[in-house]
Amino acid sequence: MARRISPRKVVAPPSFIGFKPYGVITENTDSVELLYEEYEALKLADYDIMNHQEASKLMGISRPTFARIYESARRKIALALVEAREIKTSYGNAWMEKNWFVCNDCLARFTIPKNITARTCPVCHSFNIALLNV
Amino acid sequence: MSKTVITSSGNTLTSKFDKRFGRAEFFCLLDEATGQTSFIANEFKDANHGAGTKAAEFMVEQQVNKIISGDFGPKAKELLEKFDVQMVILQEELTIQAIVDRISKK
Prior knowledge:
The structure holds 2 protein chains of 2 kinds.
Chain A: E1 8-9, E2 18-19, E3 31-35, H1 36-47, H2 52-59, H3 63-82, E4 86-90, E5 94-95, E6 100-103, E7 109-111, E8 129-131
Parallel strand pairs in A: 1-5, 3-4
Antiparallel strand pairs in A: 2-4, 6-7, 6-8
Chain B: E1 3-8, E2 26-31, E3 37-41, H1 51-61, E4 66-69, H2 74-82, E5 86-89, H3 96-104
Parallel strand pairs in B: 1-4, 4-5
Antiparallel strand pairs in B: 1-2, 2-3
Helix pairs in contact in B: 1-2
């Protein structure tokens, strides 16, 4: 079995759902899926101008892992620009705040407040849930 | 007893699920015990600012236990967390009926 992907901490999700090119000459219907952690890596490295060591600490991952995510983000954005593709953001392997869970069956993300004792998915009642901030 | 709110883009069960919380068109109130639904128009959807906060306050007043939406803003999140309202984030394109079915299926 392959090693589990460690969750990457994302301070804030992107404030958009996607980006779309306009005035495109040859329409490309394919889209590029930018993961939240890739957005975060790009933001930390190129917007907040942090070095990879600091940024990786902030995201709770190792520096080489950060570098891989960052590289993947850059490549995806380059691909989208060159091929005039739409960028869509998706959740990926991120975790954001404390006490957020994800249902492995229906992919719903949810909180479990103190007054609820059942550890099941509120949508599909599955027991197959995981904490996002392990 | 258990009140659930699903953000909706229309006031029927066939309407699409609205992924915004504060600026959703309608709120679908679902009673999970009886399966009854009712729709409330969101009066804060055109608010210039603070739509999420106002909607969250409204939910707390209505004693809602669970809210299903596409995303929650930071202020709404904080408020709902404080009042022990369960937040559920779905990213799929679904109709209200599909979500209701999913919840009521044991």
